[in-house]
Amino acid sequence: MQITVLGAGALGGYFGSRWEKAGADVTFLVREKRAEQLRRNGLKVFSSKGDYTNNKPKVVTDTHQIDHPELVFVSVKGYHLQNTIDDLKILTEKGAYVLPVLNGMEHIPVLQKELGNEAVIPGLSFIMATLDDSGHVIHSSQFHRIIFGMLHDSQKEICSRLENLCGKTDLEAVNSSDSILHELWKKYTFINAFSGITTAVDLPIGPVRENPDTFRIAEQILVEMQRLAGQYGVTVSDKEVEEAKKTLRNLDPEATSSMHQDRRKELPLEVDHLHGGAIRLAKDKGIDVPYLDAIHGMIKPFERI
Ligand SMILES: NC(=O)C1=CN([C@@H]2O[C@H](COP(=O)(O)OP(=O)(O)OC[C@H]3O[C@@H](n4cnc5c(N)ncnc54)[C@H](OP(=O)(O)O)[C@@H]3O)[C@@H](O)[C@H]2O)C=CC1
Ligand SMILES: CC(C)(CO)C(=O)C(=O)O
C-alpha cells in the first residue's frame, strides 16, 4: 500500500515506521527543516514493542513528487491543519483517502468540507509518543492502538487493506466501521479531561488523583463532554465515563498527556483545537460547560500559537 504520512512527528513517525516495516511503501511529506533532519539522522523508533531504524526514509517536501498516493495519514497538530489543506487537495485529486488521527472533533467536518465526505476516513490513536532532540520517536506506553472506520461504502476496500497491513505488525488495530464517531467522541471526552487537568496543574496523573478536589475537576469534564456528545447524537454511556475514570485512576503515576508534555517542552499547545473546540460545539447547542470553560482559561496562556 502506498501511504503518505503528512506530519512526520511522534505519531506519523511511529505508525509510518511500523507500516514500512510490514512492507508498505511509506513516504513522509514534510517541511524543509524536518526533511533535513530526517536525511541527516534517518528515522529511528525506540519502543518496548521493538526498535526500528530506517537510515534513509523516503522524504519529500513537494506534494507533486508523490505519484500514486492511496492513503494519507494526517498526524499534524490541530493548529497546523489549515496549512495542510492544499496538499491534501492535491493528494485526494490523485485518488488518495485521508485518515486523520488528530485528537478532537472539529477537524473532521473541516476536512470533509474541503476534500469531500467520501475522502475522509476518521481515525484516532491511543499511544504515548514524542520526538527526541534528534527527531527520533520515543514510544513510552505499553499500548499502541489505532482505530479507524469507514463512513462511506467506497472506503471499505482501503479500510480492509489497512486492517490487513496492521495485521502484519503488532499494532493493536481496530477497523470500527459501525462506530467510529462513537470512538472519536469517547476519546475526545477522555482527552479533554486528561490533557486539561495535567496541563493546567503541570503535573502527571499521580499527584492529580492524590488530591480528590483536583481529580474531581477531571471527572466533571468527563461528564460535560458526555453531555456534549449526546447533543451531537452520540451516546457516551455512564459505563464508558466510569471506564475513563478507571483508566485515569490506573495509569502509571508518572503518565501524562501529550499536551502536558508539550507544555513542559514549551511547545505550542492544541488548546483551541481541543478545549476551545468543545466550548464552540457547546455554544452552538446552547449548553453550559463551566469546568471546560475554567480549564480552557487556565491553559490558554501556555498555548503559544
Ligand atoms: N503524541 C502522542 O502521544 C499522541 C498524539 N495524539 C494527537 O495526534 C496529533 C499529532 O500529534 P503528535 O504526533 O504528537 O505531533 P508532533 O508535533 O509530534 O508532530 C506533528 C508534525 O506535523 C508536522 N507538520 C505540521 N504542519 C505540517 C505541514 N504543513 N506539512 C508537513 N508536516 C507538517 C510537524 O513538522 P514541523 O517539524 O515541520 O513543524 C510535526 O513534525 C495531535 O492531534 C495529538 O493530539 C494522539 C494520541 C497520542
Ligand atoms: C491520552 C493519550 C496519551 C492517549 O493516546 C493521548 O491521546 C494524548 O495524550 O494526546
Shape: globular
> What is the count of structural domains?
2
What share of the residues lie within helices?
40-55%
> What is the overall number of helices?
12
Give the tally of β-strands.
10
Which molecules are bound in this entry?
Answer: NADPH dihydro-nicotinamide-adenine-dinucleotide phosphate, ketopantoate
Just name the CATH architecture of the largest domain: 3-Layer(aba) Sandwich
Strand order within the widest sheet?
A: 5-2-1-6-7
CATH homologous superfamily (4th level) name of the largest domain: NAD(P)-binding Rossmann-like Domain
Compute the separation of the termini in Å. Answer: 35 Å
| Beta-strand content | 15-25%
Order of helices and strands: EHEHEEEEHEHEEHEHHHHHHH
Radius of gyration: 19 Å
Sketch the major β-sheet: 5 strands, parallel
Low-confidence stretches: none
- The computed structural class is alpha/beta
- The CATH C-level name of the largest domain is Alpha Beta
Pathway: Cofactor biosynthesis; (R)-pantothenate biosynthesis; (R)-pantoate from 3-methyl-2-oxobutanoate: step 2/2
Protein name: 2-dehydropantoate 2-reductase
EC number: 1.1.1.169
InterPro entries: 6-PGluconate_DH-like_C_sf (IPR008927), 6PGD_dom2 (IPR013328), ApbA (IPR003710), KPA_reductase (IPR013752), KPR-Related (IPR051402), KPR_N (IPR013332), NAD(P)-bd_dom_sf (IPR036291)
